[in-house]
Structures are given as structure tokens and as C-alpha cells.
Amino acid sequence: xxxxxxxxxxxxxxxxxxxxxxxxxxxxxxxxxxxxxxxxxxxxxxxxxxxxxxxxxxxxxxxxxxxxxxxxxxxxxxxxxxxxxxxxxxxxxxxxxxxxxxxxxxxxxxxxxxxxxxxxxxxxxxxxxxxxxxxxxxxxxxxxxxxxxxxxxxxxxxxxxxxxxxxxx
Length: 169
Fold this sequence. Notes:
The chain is of the alpha+beta class. The protein has five helices and four strands; from the N terminus they run H-E-H-E-H-E-E-H-H.
């Protein structure tokens, strides 16, 4: 049954009871299952907060697109040069209820999360668990590739945000 992660709760219960009936002399194949219907889930669009640039939120936006999940975006604008004030974000940063206030952030109903990698893993786990691997080996490979992606991304970002002589960069 571990391989069949698309089974409903009722199907899992029926299969488990059939296995028990085959193994146990005190159990038979006469089973009554009562299905309790869940309350309809209220769909709330997740909210992604970030600056109006690609940056660390780009991969999250791509993942939302791949998953087919509609989302809202809170965009924080910087002030004009040369200071590029971040006051719009700083005005709300500590009042939003995040454990570690930072951009990008995700608000999914009552759940709040920051840090781009954590957000991406959360989205993958919520909407398509296969993206994190179907078994331990695939999960390990996905984690390894995630680490390599982070290293490459950090190096590329360093060049974009460093100040100084372009020949040194």
C-alpha cells in the first residue's frame, strides 16, 4: 500500500481489513465502513511577498506556475536612488506574525513561512509530493540538486549585487 499514495482513506481501510482478514483467524471479510464526508474546504489563495524583481522569488513563482496554483502577490517597492529605501517593507515587517520576518514570504491561510527553499519545499509537499522524490534515494538526490542550485544561485547573485570594479567581479 505504500506505493499507492493516491488511494482514498476508504480504499486504504478496505485493503487493510482484507489483509487482516487473510492473516487473522479472529477476523473475517465482513466489513462495514462508514465514510464521514469532510467539510468543504475554503480555498484561499496563497500570498507571496517580495520586491518587484525576479530575485529569490523567481523560482517560487515558477513553481506556482508548474503546479498550476493561483497565488496573490504582495509587492514591496524600494525608494528612489541613491538610497533605495526599504521602508515600505520595514513598516510592516515585524507586525505580520512571522517567526523569522524576511522576504520572500508565503502566507497560506493561517500558515506563514519565510526563506525561499523552505517555501519551495512546502509548496512541493502540499501540491505535488513527487517533486520531493518518491522514496529516500530520490529525496536524497533532490536535496543534493537543491544544494548545488543554491551554490550556483548564490554565486550568480553575488555578481549582481556587488559593488565595485566590474573587472574584479
